[in-house]
Amino acid sequence: MNAAAALVRALEAEGVDIVFGYPGGAILPVYDALVDSKLRHILVRHEQAAAFAANGWARATGQVGVCIATSGPGATNLVTGIADAFADSVPMVIITGQVATGLMGTDAFQELDVLGMTMPVVKHGFVVRRAADMADVVHEAFRIARSGRPGPVLVDIPKDVAYAPVDDRVPPSVRLASVPDPVKSPDPEALARAVRAMERARKPLLYIGGGVRRARAIPELRALVETTRLPFVSTLMALGSVPTDHPLSLGMLGMHGTKAANYAVQEADLLVCACARFDDRATGKLADFAPHAEVIHIDIDAAEVGKLRRANVALVGDARVALRELARPLESIEPWRTQCLQWKRQYVLDPSPRDARVHAPTLLRRLSDRAPRDATFACDVGQHQMWVAQHVQFDSPDRHLTSGGLGAMGFGVPAAIGACFARPGSLVITVTGDGSIMMNLQELATIVRYALPLRIVLVDNRGLGLVRQWQELFHEERYSEIDLSDNPDFVRVAEAFGIPAFRVDRADQVEHAVERIVGGPGPLLCHVVVDPAANVWPIVKPGAANSSMLDDDHKTPRPAAGGAR
Amino acid sequence: MRIVVRLRRAEGDLERLIGLFRRRAWQVTALEARAARDGSTMTVHATIEGDRSPEVLARQVERLIEVEAVHLEEGEAQVPRLAGVRAKEV
Questions:
Q1: pLDDT of residue A558
Q2: Which residues 63-82 in chain B show a CB within 8 A of chain A?
Q3: Nearest CA in chain A to B15
Q4: d(Cα B3, Cα B12) in Å, to the nearest integer?
């Protein structure tokens, strides 16, 4: 047995049954070993899609996603997908081929320092220098990827090492799956102070972040909400941690959040931050964020506490323990709860169509109403992503796959491919844009190859809508390079790949389109033509306080302008 | 500000640490790194300048997999730790 075979055996021992990848010269030994393996390899058409698909699979399953690529350009193409996993704390193991050890450092063909190149975007990285270390390195990579705050781990394998023989008599210890590090409980004294702070507060607010799902603390979070009856706001990554249609949900906070959420944050006297990281898209101008609030910060990652906002009480460790401890009935917050719910009723996001054209929020609301509650929505990045966050209801954050921290266009289709493999038989819908889909368009071939029943809802505004919106609102309508009106005919493109497709360009076609997306067979591409001048409301100007959010009532409606006609 | 870090030797260890200083907006003004005689660890003494929280930096350093211990000094006073968080101490 050579080290490449040992790698495959170690992956199997870790419970891996699917990997996403693309072969090449330096990774040939691994692909040779795959021939004799039970691992299912999914051949994508670009390495970036391999990383995104493994990333989407990991988000959907909560398990470690695995992708494979060759050295040099294969590895560089992975980097965006790795960075995305790092930004959103997604557990992944990335396997790259490398030139032979004797050639490393000589500028050899397809040689790049992948370990160095990926350092800022991985939790850790390894170069396997000895064949005998292969299994141990793989198990260590999985342990690191799963432990604490999850993240991506690189395993770079020089070709000569991969071909080198290893002892077949593998010790039992390395045939077993790695065990994540135990999670420590938060400090009891800090927990007691947190309880007292909650009892003292008159305007407490729960601020839920994506880390709750990573901590597998959803049941404890929901129990806390029911016990305390705390109103809550969610980050983009946390939507669905408590069902988004829960009566106490004030919606998403931040740049495209609801007024109710942002007003509540501004007025709160205590913010219970459950595994969020005070990201700038959530906080707006940090100095004006929750200006009257003390902060209880729950996080497994001590480095997040105090990074951007001082915590009055830090609960570092197991979020399940912290949330259980804080789940006590709260007296005296009824007036505050009433106020929050009044804001919620007063500032409903208005999805009403304005004319005969398709209104994307309306379509998404109908899709949300008609899709089964276990449907998965995978988004790309842009206006459509924000509309999904605002208008689709989620029962679980694992049903909402979105590139939160990195905001990587091109994520949607390959991440949804990963979700299709993770949830066979379940409805998976990609909501993408005409900018985003072009970044990984080649993956339509992967959908067809594996007969994936993916529904693609392509919201086409013939431009880079969110960039155009910023240029309109914050750059005095000086439109610059946002015109994509020369995109190809997406229906014909999809059909050329072998995917049935149809176009929707009038509001009265929406109902039929939704029925076909939800009830018809997949794969399917629904090309939705929308108003190029449509904007996402509300919006907070970058760097401004959340309380200064704009909505379309504050802005005179304008006709389509600039290049995005 | 002086920071002393003990690293378990691993490929890229020093690069990871120095890169982290830069990415987190700290500037290194003096640096000494010495491997232990048995080669298993390396101790890094760095003088750094920056405007951000040294305590947060220390925790970011601790997060590196190969970091075994961190000691942080600002003037004569050691930077306080979070309650209940077991710091990696030199």
A1: 38
A2: 63-65, 82
A3: A116
A4: 19
